[in-house]
Amino acid sequence: MKTLIEPRDERTQPTRIVPGYPQTPWRNPRQPLVKRSPTLSELTGPLEVAKRVRLLGGDIAGHGDKQAIGQLIHLKVRVLDEDGAPVGGAVVEVWQANGAGRYIHPNDDDHAPPDPNFYGAARLVTDETGMFELRTVKPGAYPVPTRDGWWRPPHVHFSLFGKVWLSRLVTQMYFPGEPLNAQDRILNAVPDAAARESLIARYLPPTGDPYNALVFEHQIVLRGRTATPAQS
Amino acid sequence: MKRSAMIPTGEATIGPFFPPRYVDAGANDLTMFAGRKAKGEAIEIRGSVIQEDGKALENLVVEIWQADALGIFRHPADPRHAQADPDFFGWGRAATDSTGSYRFRTIRPGAAEGRAPHINFMVMFSGLMRILKTTLFFEEGVDVVLSAVPASRRELLIAKKQGPNSYRFDIQLCGDGETPFFDD
Predict the structure, then answer these.
(1) DSSP-assigned letter for residue B19
(2) Between chains, do B11 and A170 touch, taking CB under 8 Å as contact?
């Protein structure tokens, strides 16, 4: 089955240089990016990545006296391709701050406490309907060390392996109704308002969730659609 | 051009807090898969990833994707994939160390359909809002991707031979000697 990758609509993707994000001008190419027509090499890619990496379960909020502190949430995420078809069997890597806005990572400073019951990472495989689910705590906001008042709103990081090399995606998901969303430099680096909105999860009213958690649902669209027989 | 039904999700930076445990031990060694040795010539590729001021960056994530020794991709879109080496996975991940260097052990790829032997690279890091994609070549040759690069910059995509099975491929993100990256 052949995957087609079309040129991006740049307004739906972040700019590479972001005002107020000091590392961006040092690390992004200044020369024009080279246009190429994808070949078989870019239109294939690693499948069954779960055979190559160690998975970590999606229940990361802990249980009993090992329960993480924070608002318990149940995140339901569907992964689709550009046809709207589910992408099953895709490895998804998840990482996030704890309820206080602290990552378990040597790069994080000590502005907020680590939670001994929260590491904040899950590595999962989507099911045949493209779904993966997490039982976690809502990440806290945290200040970016730019010292000019930039705080990251609560967000969850995702890295996904799609069907081909060019569908590889690293993205972030935000929460609805957060006042920091409006001024976040990373979220607002996407010029198109509808594309920005699609990065914000949807809150579902409580209806007896099995985890007794607040439920958010989200959708991630990977690049690529299936070629029709005429295009193959 | 036909418009797609769904708009691909916006990319974002991997940020400074990508969990170190996601760089699994052995993920940078493509010569072995599920305890079995891949066919072909084992090679080593090392390099640094450098930002504009010349500083090599630590904890940056590099991923590669390539064909096996016969130039076959482990993927159903390759018409020859039934003949792909079952012991070669084709994908690997490395993180740069405290000196800013990454290292892969892999198999020298064969020439895939219409292409010179090459390895696809991705770079992910804090400050990169989009994944940067480039391609390593072993020598100048006829290749549609290499010829898309302006002639004066093509040599920047040719790995430097260090020994019989060893290559160096530095990636300059920005500034003098900037590595060509692809718009896709």
Answers:
(1) -
(2) yes
Question: CB neighbours of B116 closer than 8 A, spacing ≥ 6?
Answer: B137, B138, B139, B141, B142, B143, B146
Check if A230 contacts B (Cβ < 8 Å): no
**What are the φ and ψ backbone dihedral angles of A197, each rounded to 5 degrees?**
-60, -35
Selection from A81, A205, A69, A195 nearest residue A138 by Cα: A69
pTM for the structure as a whole: 0.97
Q: What is the spatial distance between Cα A56 and Cα B63, in angstroms, rounded to a whole number?
A: 20
The widest CA-to-CA distance across chain B, in whole angstroms, is 50
- How high is the ipTM of this complex? 0.96
> Is A83's Cβ below 8 Å from some Cβ in B?
yes
Interval A145-202: pLDDT, tens: 998 999 999 999 999 999 999 999 999 999 999 999 999 999 999 999 999 999 999 9
Q: Which carries the bigger pLDDT value, residue A38 or residue A110? A: A38
> If we measure between CA atoms, which residue out of A96, A107, A85 comes closest to residue A56?
A96
Q: How far apart are CA A203 and CA A174, in angstroms?
A: 11
Q: Is A152 a catalytic residue?
A: yes
